[in-house]
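Section 3.1 - Work completed
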Amino acid sequence: MIFIGNHLSVSDGYLAMGKKATKLGGNTFAFFTRNPRGGKAKPLDIEDMQALDAYLKEHEFGKLVAHAPYTMNLCSAKGSVRTFAKEAMADDLKRMEYLPGNYYNFHPGSHVGQGVRPAIEMIVEGLDQAMFEDMHTTVLLETMSGKGTEVGRSLSELADIINKARYPQHLGVCLDTCHVWDGGYNIGTDLDEMLKTIDEVIGIERLKAIHINDSMNICGSHKDRHAKIGEGEIGVETLKKVVQHPWLQDKPFILETPNNDAGYAHEIAMIKDWMI
């Protein structure tokens, strides 16, 4: 069995996302906690969130992977941007308590010339302010492609953030296949080696979710351009090895490929077939 799904819109509500995931053949999904390009969140609808929570249990879904907005940058050079990021994350994590036991994924941020070390300190400060000891959500740092001044282009940078944070027990990692490929990790030839490195540097138990994407770019391009499964440089055979890897079983696999509903339904069915 595999937990597989795609990004869904929350515009029609929370329960509607669960039902749409089922319609597309999925048993997990991702959604943006607020406008991905802006930052405004929908009014809190506790009843709708509780209805989704019951639906997930009834239909045996895997863990969901909520996604922070792209505008959230905890290590921005601008104080106003950092303040928004801290406030948005704190609000999101409070909201996620109505969907307990799931994941909240975010891009660590871009240091925009300040340097990686100061940026990591800012990210840790933001996490420490937004997170709380008795929370029921695991916050996931996403592996990045190394585009521009992104933090998280290496596993050691992610490990540094986790090790310095106040609540490391509530932190994990989301592996994006396109990002690590574009970042220089050849998962075609070195998948086992990369996963062993994750285990050594971060701890394989912290690898909680996978964004399963093909890439438009060659390995090491540092560009971050997703492609449909089998239509990019990573290819079906490599992505199949990722999905089938024994260390990655029972984790949610989230498609972020450039698709419509029919395309996602096709990819979900194809990936399910890989497990037969």
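Second construct:
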Amino acid sequence: MENSVLNYLESTARKFPDKLAISDGTLEITFSEWRHRALCLAEMIQSKINKKHCPILIYLPKSTNTLISFAGVLYSGNFYTPTDIRFPFHKIEGVLSCLQPELIISDHKSAAKLIENGISEDNILFLEDVDFSKEVSADKFLNTIIDTDLAYVFFTSGSTGVPKGVAITQRSIVDYIDWAAKEFEIDEHERIANQAPFYFDNSILDIYLCMSRGATLYIVPEMFYGFQAKLLAFLEEKEITFIFWVPSALVGSANSGLLERFHLQSIHKVLFCGEVMPNRHLNIWRKVLPEAVYANLYGPTEITDVCAFFRVSRPFADDDPLPIGNACRNTEILLLDDENQRITEQDKMGELCVRGTSLAVGYYGNKEKTNEAFVQNPLNPYYDEKIYRTGDLAHYNEFGEIMFDGRKDFQIKHLGYRIELGEIETAILSIEGIDNACCLYDTELQKIIAVYQSSSHIEGLEIKKLLLQMLPKYMVPSEFQDVDQMPYNDNGKIDRKQLKAQFIQ
């Protein structure tokens, strides 16, 4: 097992020096160029701060240069935190306050917003100032890196809105990538279409599969996701073979009615993660590309992106929920009841907890939140062993597969019944003509509200009639709100906070 993701780049640059590594439509680089530019940047980082194990903020547009910066920071012996230059400054300020970065890597155009808001130029390394013409040896960097060093800190606001920095080690990434590359048979012939923002943990799989196996990474222009014809034409033109997207991106393509109009037969692996994938939309993809491998991956940021997976290997009805499957290699999933006893029987719900190398080392600079979520394994009284309590509910089905039942905070008590809002959403999404849906609960008025997006403009009354055939009456929403466009958060998931603010007074 490698002790650093940089060993991936060293090996791949030797094996495939002139092979295209990354393309963002403006800048394309080979693996040897990726390594060379990262080393030049690492040397400049060390000349600026002469420290190791320090946080460095990456403040750049999503681009090839961002990935050069990630590798440069790691070569320098430090760890990176990416953000989005389009975020309002108050959001960046929250990250800066928690992270206290030793350095910010940016370009002159992007950094203007930082400087306007009081960030000193002395704290910024401008990419335009890096001398990429010199030769830099990797030996002086690699010899000091060990596998428990931090690789990145990703910020997630969670349910409170207060940013928490999830700290992940080199070892956790290597463990994840080695598993995924073997499980999905990734090699240098793979052509990956990256959808996830680089500050979102789903991007880790794209980036490091590319780096470790010599695959080519195409950064899809973000505007294409609003223009399905352009998006699908891009996949066709680049002969993409592998996609790992949030379900909402796949739902958008399925809803477009355009999948069959493009030659997408080169796509042979379709993976998704981040939220529930509705089977009605997945079945559209499966019909168009029946030979492709489909896999539902599950995991929060705190466990290096993914801890469970399910290969979609059997038929599912449109209104069936999709399993999240079983634990990834070198990971154990525990379902614990309210008394912290392990659940093994079918259909009994418990909190999904995780143990293994994938676990983050905690929340950066926040011991209180770390101790709440990363706790002693209650099944092990003999020595220190941390598990991560995800706050997600799950149960085992008749096949021994794990079924996701939603967040603890999405479970409601209504009319004396315990109800999972996700179960209602799955039923709504199975209805023809529904493009997307989200259920909310108004605790004060004690009513379930269904917010939905429908290109067919289905009336709420019609949806209610259909739901009464699928769900018990007490689970059927009493209010239906049709929206032209479902709001999404920065990670491409439905923005439930915005919907609550809009529909619950």
